[in-house]
Write a structure and sequence with these properties.
The complex is a heterodimer of chains A (513) and B (349). In chain A, the strands form five sheets. In chain A, strands 13, 16, 19, 20, 21, 22 and 23 form a seven-stranded mixed β-sheet that branches. A six-stranded mixed β-sheet of chain A has the order 6-7-8-3-9-10, sandwiched between helices. In chain A, strands 2-1-4-5 form a four-stranded antiparallel β-sheet, with helices on one face. Chain A is an alpha/beta fold. In chain A, helix 8 packs across helix 17. Chain A is built from 18 helices and 23 strands. Chain A is globular. Chain B has a domain of 225 residues. Chain B is built from 13 helices and two strands, in the order βαααααααααααααβ. The relative contact order of chain B is 0.22. The chains are: A alpha/beta (513), B mainly alpha (349). At the A-B interface, helix 10, helix 11 and strand 18 of A face helix 8 and helix 9 of B.
């Protein structure tokens, strides 16, 4: 390319805070005309917040957005659209009962014009779909389209509005490999015609395949950027997960007997995320097992099996050496499994319940809190109060609705709820996501203390720092398959990164595709 | 414009919108009364006097409130668990059906044995009618709004068939009407000489029982948990589908008691006009009561008062009784809006 690059978009030192959480910390990068920049980061890294600021949905606390050198007014979605920024969201915004053409022209056509200009619109749509290989009939109803076709409609919608910068949020999450190839072909045509593209993803091989440059976000901070030709998947995985060498915080102790065992467990896929594929794992007393991996690689299935929400479709779960017959959340709790769920707002607590009602949620039927169908509120309240005191839950009182608490205090209540039952096995799924540093240390301290008194801990996390700092043993999960165990001495970020990228399994298991 | 949730609404935030909703209802009704050529003040005076102004009026209102308390409780119980039972009408007729099937002489028992039997079988009948939509929902994910609503029509036609056939009173001169209950199957009056039957006492008692179940029992706790957040309830080990089925059984049973109480307390026989939409009005009652079981009693008295008062107002002032329907509809819509405004504030962009 002989021409000097033209800067299409620049984000300058964008900072956005939500209460105690800094979602974006002085993030800045630019996109040139005709360039694909991948925005890489785990869930909660701040990608979505950044795009919402770019689109004027949120107002940044500081920093500016400029399109082709013109600064956009903050908090104005219209201005972003007028400047030629278009976005294809992960969840499509199409009217199912309208045709493709109607969806594309929706909102562009004047409401008061009598002439619909349907023929011109149609010609333009057909023209665009030919030019960019977006095969879809303008007259088809959206309800009858596949997910891949709907995405094409979304992209056509953006192109129809003459966007100059196209943002794609996890576009491949819903696509088959073939559709992904088609999408990439379309994107290459778009670049040739001078569009700039921001490609949000956490799939490394796709990023390597389509992007010119990669920007990595972690915990709201911009960790780094690199040209794809100068980097590789492992380096990106390491960057995304974090590799700051954190000294192990714990002395190794000899693990005890296996308390919970998974033997050749296989589960069905959950949506687009893979289920477990013949996974065997033993949780031993006095040991923290870390499960590392890029999100959406079978962690949810693993958490569901250990937590009692899902039974294996083949293989089995054994508790203290005995194969389990009946497996549901209640039997899991009764078996002494403490479950810290991934989403404390939606799964871990009931927002409109107060602290007392949330504290007894898993064990309201036990003799501690009820007799023959009648709740003992006095004992329940005393239990909630004891958690509040012992785990330092900052709140106005046990009768406060839990939605009024900060994430950290909510998590402390969940910790107290499960740890007060003196569990033998602890399932901690993303236990510190979105928490401030004080709460993070507290939660980690509690997990280590539980391990030291002989509990078996399974720590599922997308944060490699966290996994490496706490675990005695690490497994990597990728595509629903589990890597061999890595002891404390054997694990290096580079090595784990290779496994997280899906390599290494080939030596153990025959290659699937 | 968009809505922004209010995290911790103040007392004024909680009370002002509902008060304004009631005020606005009165204004709308006044405008309509004026349009009908009447003085709104005298119209409201007449409604109040017609509903509560004399012993006769008051007892009439309490009688009218009785089935509404039952159907209101049925809706309140189900809605609390986010089970949308729109079929109280069908369940009411199921209760009435069992009452005339067993209460017209098949069981020649004294009242002390017969009435409790009728209560139990009415409850079972209503519960059974709602069990079908509940299982369709929990097993196959069929929307219960549709099934319970459509069941109303199916069941009413079923009753109509029975009244034209096997249940038809041979002495009824050809009317589609069941035989009369035997005296032992009639609910006695609460106080001798006053037109108020024991069904009212049963309704009040039911409200208290439901209140205690909701606040003190594990079942009530489960129903609230399922209503507020199914995902978290399931994660914690609450058997969500079982709770929904139990909720449906309870709700159906309550609605059926309305049918029992109307037949055994008032009408003595089953006809197709047993209920002037008590099942549907129960939904309004439950919403106005914010789903609180004791609030249902108050809301049922309010709604019954408007209906009874509007009847006598209509005779005196010449304003059509439809005013009562409009007042209730306006009160319901405005109350729904008011409830939203207690939890959200409107922000202008």
């Amino acid at each position: 390319m002989a021409d000097a690059p033209v800067e299409a978009l620049s984000l300058n030192a964008i900072t956005k805070r939500f209460g105690e959480l800094t979602a974006n910390d002085a993030v800045g990068f630019s996109v040139d005309k005709g360039e694909v920049v991948a925005l890489l980061g785990e869930n909660g890294a701040g990608k979505t917040t950044l795009m919402n600021i770019l689109f004027g949905q949120y107002t940044a606390d500081s920093g500016t957005v400029a399109v082709f050198g013109k600064t956009l007014p903050p908090g104005n979605s219209r201005a972003a659209l007028d400047a030629g920024v278009g976005m294809v969201h992960q969840h499509f915004s199409l009217a199912e009962n309208l045709t493709v053409q109607e969806n594309i022209t929706l909102g562009v056509r004047s409401l008061f014009s009598l002439r619909s200009g349907r023929a011109t619109a149609r010609a333009k749509i057909i023209d665009l779909s030919k030019k960019f290989h977006l095969v879809v009939s303008p007259d088809a109803r959206v309800a009858s389209l596949t997910v891949g076709e709907r995405q094409r409609v979304e992209i056509l919608k953006a192109l129809y509005r003459d966007v100059r910068i196209l943002i794609l949020d996890e576009p491949t999450a819903v696509l088959t490999p073939q559709e992904t190839d088609d999408l990439f072909a379309t994107l290459r045509l778009a670049i040739e015609s001078g569009l700039s593209i921001i490609f949000i993803s956490h799939k490394l091989h796709e990023v390597m395949a389509i992007a010119d440059r990669v920007v990595v976000l972690r915990h709201g901070k911009m960790i780094g950027g690199a040209r794809t030709q100068d980097t590789d998947k492992h380096a990106l995985a390491a960057m995304m997960m974090g590799t700051e060498a954190t000294a192990p915080q714990v002395e190794p102790i000899n693990p005890g007997p296996a308390l919970l065992e998974l033997q050749d467990v296989t589960t069905p896929n959950i949506g687009t995320a893979p289920g477990l594929k013949s996974v065997s794992l033993a949780l031993r007393a006095g040991q923290i097992i870390g499960l590392a991996g890029v999100s959406g690689n079978g962690q949810a299935a693993m958490a569901d099996v250990v937590g009692g929400l899902r039974s294996p479709s083949s293989g089995y779960v054994a508790l203290n050496g005995t194969r389990i017959q009946k497996w549901n959340p209640r039997t899991a709790v009764q078996s002494g499994i403490a479950r810290i769920p991934e989403d404390r707002h939606k799964t871990g607590t009931i927002s409109d319940f107060d602290l007392t009602e949330n504290a007894i949620l898993e064990r309201y039927k036990t003799a501690a809190f009820s007799t023959s169908g009648w709740l003992n509120w006095r004992k329940s309240r005393a239990f909630a109060q004891s958690i509040i005191d012992k785990y330092d839950v900052r709140c106005p009182g046990a009768d406060t609705p839990i939605r009024l608490l900060s994430g950290g205090n909510m998590q402390k209540l969940i910790l107290g709820r499960v740890l007060e039952a003196d569990p033998q096995i602890i399932l901690a799924n993303q236990p510190v996501r979105g928490l401030d540093i004080g709460a993070v240390n507290y939660v980690h301290g509690q997990l280590l203390a539980a391990r030291d008194r002989g509990a078996a801990v399974l720590l599922i996390s997308e944060d490699l720092d966290e996994v490496m700092a706490l675990s005695d043993v690490i497994h990597v999960i990728a595509g629903g398959r589990l890597s061999p165990a890595f002891g404390r001495a054997e694990m290096t970020p580079a090595q784990l990164g290779t496994w997280m990228a899906g390599q290494g399994f080939d030596e153990v298991v025959t290659h699937a595709s | 414009m968009r809505l922004e949730p209010i995290k911790n609404p103040s007392l004024a935030r909680n009370l002002l919108p509902p008060a304004l909703a009631l005020g606005a209802t009165v204004v709308i009704a006044s405008l309509l009364a004026m349009a009908a050529g009447a003085n709104p003040f005298s119209v409201f005076g007449l409604i109040l006097r017609g509903a509560f102004g004399s012993q006769f009026a008051l007892l009439e209102t309490l009688n009218r409130a009785t089935p509404l308390i039952f159907t209101g409780l049925a809706a309140a119980v189900a809605f609390r668990a986010k089970f949308w039972n729109i079929g109280a009408e069908a369940q009411l007729y199921a209760g009435a059906l069992l009452t005339v099937m067993l209460g017209t002489g098949v069981l020649p028992w004294p009242s002390i044995a017969l009435l409790p039997t009728l209560v139990v079988f009415s409850i079972l009948a209503g519960a059974f009618v709602l069990l079908i939509p509940a299982l369709l929902k929990t097993r196959f994910g069929v929307d219960e709004v549709v099934t319970t609503l459509l069941f109303n029509f199916i069941f009413l036609l079923f009753i109509s068939m029975l009244l034209e056939g096997p249940l038809k009173d041979p002495m009824g001169m050809g009317w589609p009407k069941s035989a009369r209950l035997i005296d032992e199957a009639r609910l006695p009056r609460l106080v001798d000489g006053l037109r108020l039957h024991w069904g009212f006492a049963l309704a009040i008692l039911s409200a208290f029982v439901i209140w205690i179940i909701q606040t003190r029992s594990t079942l009530g706790y489960e129903m609230r948990a399922v209503g507020l957040n199914k995902q978290a309830a399931a994660f914690a080990g609450i058997p969500v589908n079982l709770v929904l089925v139990k909720t449906a059984l309870l709700s159906g049973g309550l609605a059926a008691l309305a049918g029992f109480s109307e037949v055994a307390g008032v009408k003595a026989s089953l006809t197709l006009d047993l209920s002037p939409g008590f099942g549907y009005t129960g939904i309004i009652v439950a919403m106005l009561a914010l789903l609180h079981p004791l609030g249902v009693v108050v809301a049922a008295l309010f709604v019954a008062g408007i209906f009874v008062g509007a009847d006598s107002m209509s005779r005196a002032a010449g304003v059509p009784t439809y005013l009562a329907d409009i007042m209730l509809a306006a009160a319901l819509l405005l109350m729904v809006l008011a409830i939203m405004l207690t939890r959200f504030r409107v922000v202008r962009d």
